[in-house]
Amino acid sequence: MSDDFTLPDDPGTGTGLVSSPVTPGALLEALNDEQRRAVETTDGPLLVLSGAGTGKTRVLTTRLAYILASGRAQPWRMLAVTFTNRAAREMRERLATMIGPASESLWLGTFHAIGVRILRRHAELVGLKSNFTILDTDDQLRLLKQIMEAEGIDTRKSPPPALMGILQRWKDRGLTPDKVRDESSGERHRREALALFAPYQRRLLAVNAADFGDLLLHNLTLFQNHPDVLAQYQDQFRYILVDEYQDTNVSQYLWLRLLTQRHKNLCCVGDDDQSIYSWRGAEVGNILRFEQDFPGAQVIRLESNYRSSASILAAASGLIRHNKGRLGKDLRAAALDDPGDKVSLRGVWDGEEEARVVVEEIEAEQRQGRSLGEMAILVRAGFQTREFEERFIITGVPYRVVGGPRFYERQEIRDAIAYLRVILQPDDDLALVRILNVPKRGLGDSTLQTLHLVARGQGVTLMEAARRLVETDELRPTARVALRALIADFDRWRDQVDRKGARELTALMLDESGYMAMWLADRSPDAPGRIENLKEMVAALEEYENLAGFLEHVSLVMENDQRNDHDRVTVMTLHAAKGLEFDVVFLPGWEEGLFPHQRALEEGGDRALEEERRLAYVGITRARRRVFVSFAANRRVYGRWQTAIQSRFISELPPGAVRQATAPGVPGGRRGFGEYRYDWKASGWREGGGNAPVIDVPARQVVTQASFSPYPVGDRVFHQKFGYGVVRDVDGEKLSILFDKTGMKKVMTRFVQKG
DNA sequence: CTAATATTTATTTTT
DNA sequence: TAAATATTAG
Question: A702's torsion region: left (phi>0), alpha (psi -120 to 50) or beta?
Fold first, then answer.
């Protein structure tokens, strides 16, 4: 199919093209019809609706390579933006194999990385210096708290994270303080947030820092106030490509619109059915409105799915059809011969049983030769991972939990980075505050107060205030000496930035500051791990030219280097699973209140329900061969037992694509979800009902604790296996018993007798 | 300034 | 329940 290529393919025409290892025609050969159209439609606005598993990345990379190879643009005139570093890296790697080194001069990266690249060049135009610091969530909150104190807003009545959230949403929408609409009649938090917005932004500029939202927001201000700069980039970026367009927020949308004005060659790839980040400011509307926003836009649907079995696709499609606000798209199985296994549905008594059953299923798959790395448990909320972990530990099945604290979010790493930040950027008040008294130097709250006082009074940064303060006798002598020493330390380290390698300097700093010594002296069990982490960080520094490069990497690419190495079952949230695929996928916790999540329903109504449904869709479409959905009648949440009915999503799965697994019943072999359901009005289990959901019933009600127990707290009891013990807690049928020999255990009532 | 104790409050988290 | 944070006593 290489001969239907009709465009100039002549490197000799003086377009300054790189010699390319492939011809445009060859690139198209590996594509199906719809994919090929998505690649060949190079000019004008284009929306590629790519369903799960339809070869999106292939289209993206091929399109880039095609445009280059056909001589339409030089690499540096192409902009390709993604959301994650992972996506950017993957694209870059694939491109490198397709077109070679030319791929390196492409503007390819995350929205934030590209934003930073542009912003560093023109930082002064928005009031920053080009070496500005990028703050993470932690720093943002600290800063906001400071401002709240200064503005007299009670941090207890108004939780800083909540206010920060409001600020972030404004930024996501491209709003600067002057553009937020009057909130004086709005609710209290919004009023307060607005009052804080301008001071917060001023403070960021004062400490020469930007938060994540600012990276794009400043780009917008820059473009709006400096048309010449905008024109330069508009001109440069002849072709613009956007991945995961359904996840863009307003600010990213505006940014793209500005940049694309001139050439209008904007290609957005996305899937409205996989939009699951509205709570972070993503606007599904962006993708739904694409055709109106960009006149003359073409829309191409990729619906041929190469990943999942027909049964799985049927289940997913049937479910997502219940959503109203969608562009409409149906996945077709590329392999039509075998529909594959139906989605397995299973009700269990409680979370513990669910974990047991799932892990049994995993072991069964493993016995049939399925590798553990091809199986994943996808949960709605992080706390669900615990029960699975416990089960994995008991059974000895290797697993890994994705998520958790990232390397660069660990306390010791953040501390070390704070030191480095102060070295490079003495104005970085936040970093200074973080390590001022770490390790303990006798520079506690009171010293910090005076420091703040002087800084605010004289309008200088904390470091400068510190310099002035040690020349006076305002501080206690001990504090003054300590502070003077610290300033001298930093001056000395800073002096060596250019003379020593990043690695050497950091090691020196960790040593001289006493920070390493602090952990060495620490007797707590996690101290050795922290020392290891610090060493690892120092070792990682080897790869960087200088400290600044390292810090940039840290703030933008804070990745979990969870090596995918071994054969382990993956446990992670549904959100984290987007973009991944496995042979076998387990979807536990399909209960009203957990999934869809109660809070989403309360706060976001129907829109949120549809997003939850999309999340379910994402979950199902991760699977190639098998899907196991399960739900528990009882679950322990925040220490209380709660009862729930099965998720409405279960009844939305098309019956033909689903198989009810045999109801296992409770440990005593009585109730399984298949035969029984809880009747709220009568407060009891009723026969029948099967899969029929009972929507009008309040989900996740707290079950009032059994008013009596044959073994009240304090009773002495005997257990066949564990021997004698004392009842410490009663939870319905479960007793927590402190056994004389084996310690605390949870046991069902019927396994014990009076002792 | 530090350490012990009370209180609070619990989704999802690409950068 | 348990972790994180705020308060208060030493």
Answer: beta
